[in-house]
Amino acid sequence: MDHHDEFTVPAACAPEQAFAYVADLRHAPEWFPHPLAVHLVTGEDPLRIGTAYALRGSLPGLRRGLHYEVIEVEPPHRITWATTAPRALHGCDAFTIEPEPRGCLVRFTSDFLLHGASELRWRLGGGALLRRAFLRSARNLAARLPAPAPALALA
Fold first, then answer.
1. Would you say 14 and 100 are in contact if contact means Cβ atoms under 8 Å apart?
2. Which CATH class is domain 2-144?
3. Which of 46, 88, 130, 152 has a Cα-to-Cα distance from 61 of 20 to 30 A?
4. Phi first, then psi: what are they for 65, rounded to 5°?
5. Sorted alphabetically, which InterPro entries does this protein's record hold (predicted)?
6. How is residue 155 annotated by DSSP?
């Protein structure tokens, strides 16, 4: 079964600043709402194709760690990772940064296919847990990035 989720948050910073923060997965524990450890496995540059990360922790509906590998990078606009968990999941996660007059929009998308017991756990409630985690991730990320100033009303 294919799954898709996404969120978009506004930020009052240059696209380069937002991109630098979200493109380095070592920042994910600061905004992902569940305990998470992220380790750079290969490469020293988080913005290089082939750079790999290992994510371990409490991931809703998934009891295995995840392997992330950079498969596309276009600073400061987009970064995409292939995501895998052996015998459990494969897919792609991406951040896209779009400039705005008062900063930028930061969009996260996740597309994945679950296998075996992970699919069963998803159907038994893991999907709802992960959806709530995405919503909390959006709020947490919005709190980490500079917020846009309110628009001025002209009289």
1. no
2. alpha beta
3. 46
4. -70, 165
5. Polyketide_cyclase/dehydratase, START-like_dom_sf
6. -
R_g of the chain, CA atoms, integer Å:
16
Q: With bands split at pLDDT 50, 70 and 90, how would you rate the model's confidence at 3? A: confident
pLDDT 10s digits, 9-65? 999 999 999 999 999 999 999 988 776 789 999 877 778 999 999 988 766 555 568
Contacts of 70 (CB under 8 A, 6+ apart): 46, 47, 48, 49, 50, 51, 52, 79, 80, 81
Helices (H), the chain: 15-23, 28-31, 116-121, 127-144
Task: Tell me: cis bond preceding 76? Omega within 30 of 0 counts.
Answer: yes
Assess whether pLDDT exceeds 80 at residue 82. yes
Classify burial at 35, counting beta carbons within 10 Å of its beta carbon; exposed 0-12, middle 13-18, buried 19 or more: exposed
Cβ–Cβ < 8 Å for 59, 34: yes
